[in-house]
Amino acid sequence: MTTDERAEGAATPDLDAVVVGAGFSGLYMLHRLRGLGLRVRVFEAGGGVGGTWFWNRYPGARCDIESWDYSYSFDPELDQEWEWTERYPAQPEIRAYLEHVADRYGLREDITLDTRVASARFDNDTGLWRVCTNRGHDVTARYVVMATGCLSAARTPDIPGMERFAGETCHTGRWPLEGVEFEGKRVAVIGTGSSGVQAIPVIAEQAAHLTVFQRTATFSVPARNRELGAEEKRHVKETYPDRRRLTRESPTGTTVVRGDRSATEVPPDERRAAFEQRWERGGAGLPAAFTDVLTDRRANDAASEFVRSKIREIVEDPETADRLCPRDVPIAAKRLCVDTGYYATYNNEHVELVDVRAHPIEEITREGVRTSEGTHRYDVIVFATGYDAMTGALSRIDIRGRHGLSLREKWSAGPVTYLGLATAGFPNLFVVAGPGSPSVLTNVVVSIEHHVEWLVELLERMDSAGVRHVEATEDAEVRWVEHVNELASRTLYPEANSWYLGANVPGKPRVFMPYPGGLVAYREACRRVADNDYEGFSLT
Ligand code: FAD
């Protein structure tokens, strides 16, 4: 509480800030808010810290941005003391890193685990937020920060008969802590997005039989993951300052080298050689070989056809290869998957691929899955069916702003934010990596750090100016949403039925949610707002 508030006799909140979620966002937010001397409580639904990396324990789970980029940059000492062992570390290692961060900065004492925030309501009379949890906490706070994650609201499709299945079911994003035994079992995986593509090759190594139910074929590129040798580890540490600067200056928050020519300008053999080189290098940088893969249909077709040719080369059975080739989606307009042995897995005799567009799943029975072709018997069904992305975690909380305004209702036609950070009618409520921000189109950790730092500076300046409430104006958010839509319309993103558009959730409004202008332009927009006395926010 500021001195001004005390002087004015404003209601005293229990806390200065409540942060919801203890993943990359919540942990860093807590650390920085404490740095301002604020009293903060983090509520986390999971039984540990780590967010995504607490929940996603499925076999094969790993990041697809290189370890040295997919980590915090705020403390050079942390960079030097933590040792990544792989190019793309697996979930246990990223989780251990976040556990280490929680311990190193003494964050745990302010985090309440196993506790879900059920509601957050703004009280017009006191000007404070009242936050209630499923475990009976009922606290008031001046600020609420939603660090609830873009991909944390796991979604299982509504297939009739699910409750009847006698075997085990699990969702990749809610993996049982005790693990799942696949050895010698008949397993079904439903879904071939990023998580499915990572899990399928590992499950196939253990299961007696694996059926993959695919609705939409997926573009995936090889990770070419590897252990880091002593020399490479030393080199990474030595070059951290440069790497961190490069990621901050890059549109995607990575050190991927971006091509500077149009794919349509170069002769076909040169174009293929450029894609080939990126395919061999591994990782999600393939579309960045040229400037226009995401904006020009011909450039995209060339990249898409290159990957399709690789699928046909790898997969021995031509019919299976054909089913695995995406045709109705521009490459990278949906999140590009990064895999280890995904396509080759289908060369195993005990692995089959079912195209659910041709043979829809009709129901789940006691024994397994019934499609239009007949019943398949399973011991385990794995749902790799993704998330109610970007808005799901927020809409599962009853958030009410001024005069009882419900966030769910306000966003019923799609999320409306200013800079992805705040929304009109909800003073002092902030979102990290929210809809309208670059988040999922970037290295999310870089986006998160930027958000946290920008918000902390805002709170610092509010405090020193005696400002009690900050709120996005309706005008500013309408303009921002128009700007995001306009940028998206210049790309091929809207052509894919992706979770970026909410297309994976029946009934969800079709709105392109992340900001597609890149981190550099986004940072610049945020900087301008701050420099112009927080233009577009009302400060009272
Ligand atoms: P999260 O890590 O999702 O944490 C949010 C936390 O909020 C969760 O722990 C959740 O339990 C908690 N929460 C939500 N609602 C409530 C509530 N009502 N009450 C209490 N707690 C609540 N990004 C990349 O940039 N590169 C990658 O390689 C990459 N790989 C990924 C792989 C997978 C399998 C997934 C699912 C995501 C991946 N992501 C990747 C995106 C990833 O989510 C972000 O990089 C990052 O971890 C997000 O951190 P966060 O703290 O914002 O959200």
Q: Helical segment tally?
A: 17
Question: What class do helices, strands and sheet pairing give?
Answer: alpha/beta
The small-molecule ligands in this entry are: flavin-adenine dinucleotide
Question: Segments where pLDDT lies below 50 for 5+ residues?
Answer: 1-9
Give the beta-strand count. 20
Radius of gyration based on Cα positions:
24 Å
Task: Please give a quick description of this structure.
This protein has 540 residues and is of the alpha/beta class.
Give a description of the structure:
The chain is an alpha/beta fold and 540 residues long. The protein is 32% helix and 16% strand. Strands 1, 2, 3, 4, 5, 6, 17 and 18 form an eight-stranded mixed β-sheet that branches. A hairpin with a 4-residue loop joins strand 4 (117-123) and strand 5 (128-133). Helix 10 runs antiparallel to helix 11 (318-324). It is globular. It starts with a helix and ends with a strand. 49% of the residues are buried. The structure holds flavin-adenine dinucleotide (FAD). Flavin-adenine dinucleotide binds at residues 20-26, 43-46, 51-52, 54, 56, 61, 63-65, 70, 116-117, 147-152, 173, 195, 393, 397, 432-433, 443-445, 448. Belongs to the FAD-binding monooxygenase family. It holds the Pfam family Pyr_redox_3.
From the structure above, extract its key features.
single chain, about 550 residues, alpha/beta, eight-stranded mixed β-sheet, five-stranded parallel β-sheet, about 30% helix, about 15% strand, disordered N terminus, binds flavin-adenine dinucleotide
Fold blueprint:
Layout: H1 3-8, E1 15-20, H2 24-35, E2 40-43, H3 52-55, H4 76-81, H5 91-104, E3 111-112, E4 117-123, E5 128-133, E6 138-146, E7 168-171, E8 186-190, H6 194-206, E9 209-214, E10 220-222, H7 230-238, H8 240-249, H9 268-281, H10 297-314, H11 318-324, E11 337-339, H12 342-345, E12 351-355, E13 361-364, E14 368-371, E15 374-377, E16 380-383, H13 392-395, E17 398-400, H14 407-410, E18 429-431, H15 444-464, E19 470-472, H16 474-489, H17 519-531, E20 537-539
Parallel strand pairs: 1-2, 1-6, 2-3, 4-17, 6-18, 7-16, 8-9, 8-16, 9-12, 10-11
Antiparallel strand pairs: 4-5, 5-6, 13-14, 14-15, 19-20
Bound molecules: flavin-adenine dinucleotide (FAD).
